[in-house]
Amino acid sequence: MQTKLIxxxxxxxxxxxxxxxxxxxxxxxxxxxxxxxxxxLIKALIKNYKIKSLYSTEIDGMLIFxxxxxxxxxxxxxxxxDSFTKYRNRIGxxxxxxxxxxxxxxxxxxxxxxxVLEGGMTKEEQGKNEVFYNEIIARDEIDxxxxxKVFSNIKLxxxxxxxxxxxxxxxxxxxxxxxxxxxxxxxxxxRYAGKVKLIYIDPPYNTGKDxxxxxxxxxxxxWLTFIKNRLEIARELLSDNGVIFVHCDDNxxxxxxxxMDSIFNRINFISTLVIKGGSGRQDSxxxxxxxxxxxxxxxxxxxxxxxxxxxxxxxxYTKVDESGRKYKTQLLRKWGSNDTRQARPNLYFxxxxxxxxxxxxxxxxxxGRWRWRLEKINSAIEQKLIEAGTTLSGKRELxxxxxxxxxxxxxxxxxxxxxxxxxxSYSGKGSRELEKLFESKIFNNPKSExxxxxxxxxxxxxxxxxxxxxxxxxxxxxxxxKMKRQYIGIEQMDYINEVTIPRLQKVIEGERxxxxxxxxxxxxxxxxxxxxxxxxxxxxxxxQAAKNYQELSQLFEIMKQTxxxxxxxxxxxxxxxxxEADDINHMVTFRELTLQxxxxxxxxxxxxxxxxxxxxxxxxxxxxxxxxxKAFTKSFYGENLS
Length: 642
What we know:
Blueprint: H1 4-13, E1 20-21, E2 24-25, H2 27-35, H3 39-47, H4 49-55, E3 56-59, E4 62-65, H5 67-75, E5 94-95, E6 98-99, E7 116-118, E8 135-137, H6 142-145, E9 151-158, E10 161-164, E11 175-178, H7 181-187, H8 189-192, E12 196-201, H9 219-237, E13 238-248, H10 253-264, E14 269-276, E15 291-298, E16 309-312, E17 319-320, E18 326-331, E19 351-353, E20 356-358, H11 374-382, E21 386-390, E22 396-403, E23 409-412, E24 417-419, H12 428-438, H13 449-459, E25 465-468, H14 475-482, E26 486-491, H15 500-509, E27 527-532, H16 536-545, H17 549-562, E28 579-580, E29 587-588, H18 595-605, H19 627-637
Parallel strand pairs: 11-26, 11-27, 12-13, 12-25, 14-24, 25-26
Antiparallel strand pairs: 1-2, 3-4, 5-6, 7-8, 9-10, 9-27, 13-15, 14-15, 16-23, 17-18, 18-22, 19-20, 21-22, 28-29
Helix pairs in contact: 2-5, 7-9, 9-10, 13-14, 14-15
């Protein structure tokens, strides 16, 4: 039964044909247009006396309209005070006593969500003593931060050795970048947006024991902001059939899943993979953890295809075509879990085959869905890889033809549990691989090449582009190189030149560790190395390296003359003004602060929009950009840098 108010609203909306489908009001579209303040709709609503009187207030001749209240009515009109229960037979998430409808976006909110969190460090092992510049950058300040940067120290690594890279940058070159990953991601956007097939990252887990130790009381929300900023630009870099794998543990897994729902859209969620291996810490107070997670999303689920895993084929090929080739058949419609039209509405459509029309109907007699998109089905029909048949119950079905001579190996679907089969743990094998390569332990908890091989095999083919912007020891790049994929790696830690680059040099030389024997790796190939040309970032490095107050005060005098500092700071008073210490009402001079506090204060003075030199400033003689740097930067972005 409709209330008078609902009837009034329906009467207004009758004039808008786009809101109706077979006589049913499409409330979601109405709500979206109200949120977007569609002029024609808003005028029609305000023109109605009853709606205007209930949802607006006039103050000094100005009409204040309560759009939120009207939206609530449209979203939750089934609940009224005189109903027996507002819950009826529904189970779901609620907010302030109201359901979060299936057609509403469910998003994760947290402090600083609409800002950019800039942060960095130079040595992983410094841990809690590291000085972070974890400052929140507001929306009106980020354009310059994200503009393309100048590249410097450009080198080409080949089997013949290392040389300066003085030629035009070619799209098909492997690329390693040293610099802040958020800024580097925005710098490569112009060249690589929409072209990356696979992104794999293993970011800090925010366990309190890893490298994410930001110096503020909002550790959880800063981690979410930190990850959100990077995932947003990562999505832009993915191709339409691309996929992202984010490695994590259960400390932030649930929050990360909801955050990725909001960035990649919940419909594009593929799976949460579980990495199983090792015995865990047997002295743990609780469960000995033997697993981690990889949350996986497609850019566009309809364009995503998961490769099959090859195993020995022992199937029977009982059918023979007109040319004498043996084959077997497999249903063209989806069966098993998620075989309904509701699960994938876009895969429910009619197929005309040999004059007969087929629709996918599942085993329960309900609308089902096809396994493939229409374009792929039509292509298979043209290649005569589809046939029709009748089941024992008399039901007509379409089948895919699988030929024995095309399937000397059986193609199996990957499971969501990745069995490590490692002697100790999923990272233990990676540690052994790296120790064997360098004949000593040089990196903590590297991922194994076997794990990355499985991931790369799942979703890519040769020459596809793979991106890892937490490159670490370089496992992703090393495996991609051996598997003949193109790769981009980004790392800001200093160990990139102590571990990562030497490792990739060994790969080019033909090292036989990791997956080398399995893929018959013989060496070869090349990659280009480049650094984001530092501006204020160089001062951060100098500040972190300072050993005492005297060095910092001398450095500050240099900064005042040459660094780009926050214009709001009264520079002459920094060393003499009293500063608040330890978040309590205790004022001390700069000299009385601890060395770490002194460093943190000086880093805060630096303008974080000027960490690196912007490409559109490279002709400014102040920055001393070399001709080689200019040439490479222009070739990377194109002559038009805007």
